[in-house]
User: Fold this.
Amino acid sequence: EVQLVESGGGLVQPGGSLRLSCAASGFTFSSYWMHWVRQAPGKGLVWVSRINSDGTSTSYADSVKGRFTISRDNAKNTLYLQMNTLRAEDTAVYYCARATVTMYYYYMDVWGKGTTVTVSS
Amino acid sequence: DIQMTQSPSSLSASVGDRVTITCRASQSISNYLNWYQQKPGKAPKVLIYAASSLQSGVPSRFSGSGSGTDFTLTISSLQPEDFATYYCQQSYSALYTFGQGTKLEIK
Assistant:
């Protein structure tokens, strides 16, 4: 079964750090680009970051650039999101998602259930 | 950055109705446009990719159209399980922005 399972969420104080993990199974992880998407309570989906299949190329939303770092370990089939200098507005459910490409069209076809990050003093 | 704007933000409809949701991009994105459905407490699910291609397993009552800056998602005959929030998302640029969402509610 194709599956993504996020972990590492929790309560952290403003200015603190947290590292999220996303364990992949049921597919060849090293062949796929991966994304992080977040959703604040009662709000819409916000794209956060993406990484290519071998980890050599990344991109970030302006709101997290310079604070968050996406990475992956293909030997461990795991995606990461290192989050530093956290702010209250980073409070959200964080989803990891697999990106499939069909004829140059990328879309997120497999999603985890999400992990909750709460930034509060 | 490319901004994605959906309309309406919310919509009330009845089972059996035909419903159309619109998504507009702030610049041309060709047909690099995806649609997702999200139900409360659940992860999103892709419905349509490349503006009009139906994802495997998605019922044929869902369809997408458009190119350039203007796109639509149509549900031909609403079913009870279709009441959810729908998001468009562009994959034209390296920053994969989503629309703000359209909440489809039962009338």
In short: The mean pLDDT of chain A is 97. The radius of gyration of chain A is 14 Å. Chain A touches chain B through 22 residues (CB under 8 Å).
